[in-house]
Amino acid sequence: MPRTVWSGAISFGLVTVPIHVVSAREDHSVRFHQVHLEDMSRVRVRKVCEIEDREVPNAEIGKGYQLTKEKIIPVLDEELREMPLPTAKAIEIEAFVPLESIDPIQIGDGYYLQPDGQVAAKPYTLLRKALERSSRVAIAKYAWSGRERLGLLRVRDNVIVLHAMHWADEIRDPAELTPDDVKLTKNEIAEAEHLIDRLTRDDLEGEEFTDRYTQAVEALIEAKREHREPPTVEEPTAPGKVVDLMAALQESVNKAKASRGEDATVHEMPKKKTAAKKTAKKTPAKKTASKKTTSSKKTAAKKTAKKTSAPKRRSA
What we know:
Layout: E1 4-12, E2 15-23, E3 35-36, E4 41-42, E5 48-49, E6 54-55, E7 63-66, E8 72-75, H1 77-81, E9 90-97, E10 107-115, H2 121-134, E11 137-144, E12 147-156, E13 159-165, H3 186-199, H4 212-225, H5 245-259, H6 274-309
Parallel strand pairs: 1-9
Antiparallel strand pairs: 1-2, 2-10, 3-4, 5-6, 7-8, 9-11, 10-13, 11-12, 12-13
Helix pairs in contact: 3-5
């Protein structure tokens, strides 16, 4: 059973739901200790008082705000807990909105909200069913770790989930990162959409959605424990520069097909229109030349006719 991160209540109008907050995620990454490589002894971080030059136990450690270089104002945990803030002891629901209206970049870590005893079961279930039927999520405010935070409540498998959220002013404007305008052909866009269709799936189940790095680290540790050579893997191919975007897209589509056991038929490259344009330009040129030849023949015929029909002068 995961440990409780925070205890309090959900405030839903005049309805109060006592809850325990537990983490909704597990960290499976391999943990390392810092060691002295010469004798493999642990290297530890010690909390030392700068004035007394001695290690200080946690019971003597508190919070302090540095006002100036010489002055620090102490702030006790009890003072933070007793602040006159409604969200200090409750998750206050402020509004209900469609999930699609929230930018995913604002959504952070998730926590399961567990009802605190049988008394909380009925209001907890009421809020859960109301959220499900409304097809909306709740936006709430709460105070954790010395600051007021924004949160999102939704339902997952009959359990209410709290997602930490970033305030709007904490999201950086990406405008300065946008590349300059580039021109794309209709064929390039269509091929990219074709690639998206080929990579579309209904879930994230499968071998490709596993943490291969952690697996490799575990295999390395196991090999060293058994005093044998660690397993070798092929060197990953470095991505090359894209010279022909259309060719790269088509090759990607074919690889996606092959990975699913489909027939990787190569699409024909779209014919370039340059040659056709050149031919079209040459055709009217020939017509002009023929017109000029016909015109010159007519002119010559007229001159000949004039000479023939001209009266001869009588000699004196």
